[in-house]
Hints:
This protein is an all-alpha fold. The protein has helices spanning 10-30, 36-52, 57-70, 72-90, 93-104, 107-125, 128-146, 150-167, 172-181, 185-212, 218-234, 243-253, 258-277, 281-290, 299-305, 314-332, 335-344, 350-367, 371-388, 393-407, 415-424, 428-431, 436-451.
Amino acid sequence: MAKEIRKPYFWEAMLVVIFLMSSLLFNIKVLEGDAQIPLVLSAVFAGLMGLRTGMKWTEIEEGITTGITSGLKAMIILMIIGMVIGSWIIGGVVPSMIYYGLLILKPSIFLVAVCVIASLTSLAIGSSWSTAGTIGVAAIGIGTAMGIPLPMVAGAVVSGAYFGDKMSPLSDTTNMAPAVTGAELFEHIRHMVYTTLPGWIIALILYAILGVKYASGAAETDNISTVLATLSDSFYISPILLLPAFLVILMVYFKIPAIPGLIGGMIFGCIFAVLFQGATLASVVSTLHYGFAAETGVEFVDELLSRGGLDSMMWTISLVMAALTLGGIMEKTRMLEAIVEKILTFAKSTGSLVLSTVLTAIAVNMLAADQYLSIVLTGKMYTPAFKAQNLHPKNLSRIIEDAGTMTSPLIPWNSCGAFMFATLGVSPFAYLPYAFLNLLSPVISVIYGYTGFTMEKLKPGNEPITVATTNISK
């Protein structure tokens, strides 16, 4: 007789969480290793706990494959972005972006400018990843030349990129959150202004304060002059080389899917490498695979430009796969559900309900390692609770964006954090203190929950629409 399958007990689910957190902390801090092995071991532990509940191995395996499948598109984009970066460096696109950026931007306003430019770009195209892969890569190069710490630069990029990822009607997360909770798209966007705009303004003020330290300095001026001279000597620099970046942004804006849009940008980079930089076909293909190896004679410029390529993304992809394996098991075995049910027993007031929702979205980002699962699972789990407290569904949709969308790039093993690490070359743990908008959004959301500010009640005749879910990836 087959063993009856039961829902995991709360303590069983929490054992997996404790095992994950402790193994990550020990391996990263004590052994100075990476997150992959702790994630794999945690997945094994979660699988054993699943077997304990009566679930068969074939069912757990199904959870693993479902989890990994949900991130396949993201992993494909990662590989393409690696090739795009390589082709844009050998083609002179990135060097030209850095060159003109150094001519136009001043160190004192650089962080503010980066955040604003990234915000406007992501708002226009609705993609944090495309923004980071274009504007972000150039910003890292410019910031390096100006002597600005890269964690600060990456933090400004991430804040700006996720401003648009959250607020743009073209963004998948912006469409997914109201679909899951039963809110209306533009009503959802308008409601997010209350938390996003104050956070964005505070972030810009903080970046302006940080920029004061870099307002002047002979060392930075000399550094910039060296970079400008090195780039002009090593590459053909021209405004026409900015065309691939502009075309990628244009293609995404006109709703051409991310993969063909990025491939188009990669092809332009390869063509420009041959036409303008005199590269051979063999060197272009090698760069697409292994990345660009700069030999300018200036060490820090070589370090800056020696990057990209398909191979450069393999470490990140292994991290994403390990994390999604754990997330798939925890979802399939209903461990996440067991944790949320326990949390809801303490969520009696509006403030505690909002806090619980925020913490759950962050926890799913950490455990399931996927931004979309954070939005979908949290939205589905908390919709009945918000309805029971007569709260409009746009409150829930806003909260899961404030917490789910905005914290995803702050977690190194989350697909978004892994992407930013691979693209910008800065660990999420390093840029986390400077990703001001991402940090402020969930805090402001919780404050509104406890004060009741903008927490609109559900009026008669304004009930939620039928909940829909979507399984997509960046």
